[in-house]
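Annex B.
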Amino acid sequence: MTILYLNLFLSFMKIGFLSFGGMTMIPIINEEVLKFGWMTTEEVLDIVAIAEMTPGSLGINCATFVGLRSGGIPGALCATLGTMMPSLTLCLMAAHFIHKFQNNMTLNTLLKGIRPICLGMLMATAITMGQSVFWEHSSICWNLVIISLITGYCLFKRKFSIPHTILLAAFLGILMG
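Chromate transporter: predicted structure tokens.
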């Protein structure tokens, strides 16, 4: 049984290192799962469909479901940790070097230069998403603009918590159609 857990961990670690997340993981997951005989092609398709519907990352959800199906809860833990290992490793290395060189002027200057880039990327994403949310069939969806303004006001000025803001937005969505 420990061989199964080791294979789950190593296979999903390989998947984490060789893919870029999201849909790029599916062919590698399919290949690994079929190679070890953990599931059939139809079962892999079902797992991917379920993983897409559930909250969280596709890769972690698939790993958890495959591990659970193949080796129970210990299998799910092994597969999930394997998938997370590349990200955890890179984040820990980055944190180590940032902490080690926190007083380095070059690193501080570099990080100050990266901040506006990150903000710009977030703004570009917000604008792109805003266009797809608020613009439909060559007209503005005013009800969604109003919901956005009300929830934004409640979030930033009234200091609503995120869950309360989401509930408010859902209520306004039902109310305003």
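The longest strand covers residues 135-136. The helical segments are 2-18, 25-36, 41-53, 58-100, 105-134, 142-156, 162-176. Further annotation is deferred to the next reporting cycle.
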